[in-house]
């Protein structure tokens, strides 16, 4: 059963998680023959933006990821484009929940004009703790670019949090870099639920 926006605001986090899982299965998960951004072939594909740009998906994403942040988190950030709606959703929900957390967007290349910045968003104090958010982690390379840009700017990054973990090496890469890693959904949970919904 799909929850309304009002119900999603009031629902407990378990119900919010179930709603988000079903949205991933219904909107984002597809089976077939796909080539990933890494160049690898896959029998399935997840387009996380179809969920994170959906109004109910954004609300559920913001509530769940905000609940996973450490109490001393000073900002959320991610690499454009996949993380843009995620960090925005978390920041907006944080304001409603009286825990305002700014969002930062990391460019893949420095802006070619003006300040030529890699990081868009408010300037924070050096040493601010920033959590890097991602929609789908495969090899982990995309979020690691964001981690490195943030660290170069003087921020402290200790963890990457993703909506989906494809279990394709990302967790191991983050561990090698001294980063914690958590995901809302392991890929096998999405695949099981997708089969249930299709039957």
Describe what you observe in this structure:
This protein is of the alpha/beta class. It contains eight helices and eight strands. It has a single domain (5-198), classed as Rossmann fold, CATH 3.40.50.2020. It has helices spanning 5-10, 13-28, 49-52, 55-68, 84-96, 141-152, 170-176, 187-198, and strands at 29-35, 41-46, 75-79, 103-106, 119-120, 130-137, 159-165, 180-186. A six-stranded mixed beta sheet has the order 5-4-3-6-7-8, with helices on both faces. A two-stranded antiparallel sheet has the order 1-2. Helix 6 links the parallel strand 6 (130-137) and strand 7. The model has no long low-confidence stretch (mean pLDDT 94).
Short description:
With 199 residues, the protein is α/β, with parallel strands linked by helices.
Relevant terms:
23% strand, alpha/beta, 199 residues, 42% helix, EC 2.4.2.10, six-stranded mixed β-sheet, transferase, single chain, Or_phspho_trans_dom, globular, Rossmann fold, two-stranded antiparallel ribbon, PRTase-like
């Amino acid at each position: 059963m799909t929850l309304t926006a009002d119900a999603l605001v009031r629902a407990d986090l378990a119900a919010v998680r179930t709603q988000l899982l079903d949205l991933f299965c219904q909107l984002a998960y597809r089976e077939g023959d796909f080539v990933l951004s890494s160049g690898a072939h896959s029998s399935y594909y997840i387009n996380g933006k179809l969920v994170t740009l959906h109004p109910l998906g954004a609300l559920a994403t913001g509530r769940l990821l905000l609940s996973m942040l450490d109490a001393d988190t000073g900002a959320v950030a991610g690499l454009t484009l996949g993380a843009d709606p995620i960090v925005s959703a978390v920041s907006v929900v944080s304001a409603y929940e009286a825990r305002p957390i700014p969002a930062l967007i990391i460019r893949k290349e420095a802006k070619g004009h003006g300040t030529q910045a890699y990081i868009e968003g408010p300037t924070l104090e050096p040493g601010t703790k920033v959590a890097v958010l991602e929609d789908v982690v495969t090899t982990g390379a995309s979020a690691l670019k964001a981690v490195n840009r943030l660290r170069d700017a003087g921020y402290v990054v200790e963890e990457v949090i993703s909506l989906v973990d494809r279990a394709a090496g990302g967790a191991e890469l983050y561990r090698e870099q001294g980063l914690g890693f958590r995901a809302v959904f392991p890929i096998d949970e999405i695949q099981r639920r997708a089969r249930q919904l299709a039957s």
